[in-house]
Design goal:
The complex is a heterodimer. Chain A is mainly alpha-helical. Chain A has five helices and no strands. The radius of gyration of chain A is 22 Å and the shape is flat. The N terminus of chain A is likely disordered. Chain B is of the alpha/beta class. Among the domains of chain B are: 77 residues, Translation Initiation Factor IF3 (2-Layer Sandwich); 101 residues, 2-Layer Sandwich (Dihydrodipicolinate Reductase, domain 2); 62 residues, Ribosomal Protein S8, Chain: A, domain 1. In chain B, a hairpin with a 4-residue loop joins strand 15 and strand 16. In chain B, helix 1 runs parallel beside helix 3 and helix 5 runs parallel beside helix 6. The longest helix of chain B has 17 residues. Chain B is globular, with a radius of gyration of 21 Å. Chain B starts with 6 loop residues before the first strand and ends in a 12-residue tail after the last strand. The chains are: A mainly alpha, B alpha/beta. Chains A and B meet through helix 1, helix 2 and helix 4 of A and helix 3, helix 6, helix 7, helix 8 and strand 18 of B. Chain B: It is an enzyme of class 6 (ligase). Chain B: Belongs to the RNA 3'-terminal cyclase family. Type 2 subfamily.
Chain lengths: 99, 379
């Protein structure tokens, strides 16, 4: 029942198809492949190869790192402040509880 | 005595969780195509270091690395834990947090409680710092029934990039099994705690960071205490720098943490050439203000934890007995999504993921895989 409500998130995480909205990076393309006869392999080829192997190419070789919060230089302006204030005990608890 | 069947994996992604889940589920694995087309191909230094760490705390595991390092064979052994007498050097290409993340899950299921001394980098801007492990990660473990009093992480000396020199002592209890959680009340932020540190630089940097951070959070909450930890001499490690970690505690006992550090970059790509070209560090005022804003960003997401620990949270849910766990997190992070996929891959366990329409948050539900500590001595 729950799954029907939210095909998008479940699909984003587990689905085979879908987009690369979560994908990162291009891999370093400087490659010196001496083992295979092919000296230059087009990046698309490599990606295709992974896809054939059933791997979501967006996730291959992404960096193994859990910390994603980057330092935010952007300030919380007055408008945002009203919203975040309700996440604090000093805020409007009734209003926050209603959500 | 059949032939060992290896689960075949590819690529360098999720290396830590693959090793962790392989060990916990006693699934031997092979990983191929580890960075085959990059300038530095094969396993990275920190990954080899991590394999050593797994070897140190377990008994009878077999690691084979092939020719160029692009292929690995790993057969897990028994998780021993216990008191490790020699200090373990964590390669300084990543900070100690990188190693702690899988270690604190692995060794819950060890034969004896772990006590280990880890050397390396205690704080950097890439991995969770040792400070937030104390202030946030341990509280997450506590929720799942891990004895909080038995957990400790003592920072004997701090070490920053590029040369490290930090030293911590970790004590971790074992469990028979975890306890499933129903953890969806994120509560309201009632206080903010934090710690700043400075190594081989003036303690004035800490004062500036604290003042800047307070400028952002004080209008929202008055109960703010940020401690200082100025280090000189050997406890300051080998590199200069400074940094800060903040944690927001909510009325429902959730801990939202953020941290960062300013230090000179590792020159792994230029192998020493960059020694003379030292860029200026980010000014302490910017760091203090930036990290406070980052904390507000995490608080705004209405999760019961901050985004860095999503992976840890999902793993713990999955490793519970066969009971339902329900948790609320903010926006799913890249690492969180990868964790969910790895859990499905190794434990064949799918979470039900539902966005909460009233907030930005996401609610996840799963039934634990029924993990029991098999190594533990039967008393």
């Amino acid at each position: 029942i729950l799954a029907r409500k939210s095909p998008s998130l479940m699909q984003l995480v587990y689905g085979e198809s879908t987009n690369n909205s979560t994908s990162m990076d291009e891999e370093n393309d400087s490659s010196e492949d001496e083992e295979n006869g092919d000296f230059f392999i087009p990046k698309e080829e490599i990606k295709k190869q992974y896809t054939r192997d059933g791997l979501d190419d967006g996730m291959v070789h992404t960096e193994d790192c859990s910390k994603c919060a980057k330092l935010m230089s952007q300030k919380w302006d007055e408008k945002d402040h009203g919203e975040i204030r309700n996440r604090f005990v000093s805020g409007n608890l009734a209003k926050a509880a209603r959500r | 005595m059949g032939k060992t069947v290896y689960k075949k994996l590819k690529g360098s992604q999720s290396f830590r969780q693959r090793l962790l889940l392989s060990t916990l589920s006693s699934t031997p694995i092979t990983i191929e195509d580890i960075r085959p087309n990059q300038t530095y191909s094969g396993l990275a230094k920190h990954e080899i270091s991590l394999l050593r760490l797994f070897d140190t705390v377990s008994d009878g595991c077999i690691v084979e690395i092939y020719e160029t390092g692009t292929k690995l064979k790993y057969k897990p052994g028994t998780i021993m834990g216990g008191r490790v007498n020699h200090p373990f050097q964590c390669d300084v290409s990543r900070s100690i947090g990188y190693y702690l993340e899988p270690l604190i899950v692995l060794c819950l299921f060890a034969k004896e409680p772990l006590n280990i001394r880890l050397k390396g980098i205690t704080n950097d801007s890439k991995d969770p710092s040792v400070d937030t492990f104390k202030s946030a990660a341990f509280h997450i473990l506590k929720r799942f029934g891990v004895d909080f009093e038995a957990m400790s992480l003592k920072i004997e000396s701090r070490g920053l990039p590029p040369n490290g020199g930090g030293e911590v002592v970790l004590s971790l209890p074992i469990v028979q099994s975890l306890t499933a959680v129903n953890w969806i009340d994120e509560g309201f932020v009632k206080k903010i705690r934090g710690v700043t540190f400075s190594t081989k630089v003036s303690s004035q940097f800490e004062t500036s960071m604290i003042r800047a951070a307070r400028g952002v959070v004080n209008p929202l909450v008055s109960d703010v205490h940020i401690f200082t930890d100025h280090r000189t001499g050997p406890p300051a490690g080998n590199s200069p720098g400074y940094g800060i970690s903040l944690v927001a505690e909510t009325t429902s006992g959730c801990y939202i943490s953020v941290d960062t550090a300013a230090a000179h970059v590792r020159d792994e790509d230029t192998s020493g050439l960059a020694d003379d070209v030292k860029k200026d560090l980010m000014p302490p005022e910017e760091i203090g203000e930036g990290i406070a804003n980052t904390l507000l960003g995490e608080i705004a997401q209405s999760g019961v934890i901050d985004s860095s620990y999503q992976g840890l949270l999902f793993l713990l849910c999955a490793l519970c007995p066969q009971d339902v766990s329900k948790v609320r997190v903010g926006k799913l992070s890249q690492h969180g999504i990868e964790t969910l996929r790895n859990i499905k891959d190794f434990l064949d366990l799918t979470f039900i993921i539902k966005p909460d329409p009233d907030t930005q948050s996401v609610i996840l539900k799963c039934i634990g895989c029924g993990m029991k500590n098999l190594s533990r001595k039967v008393s």
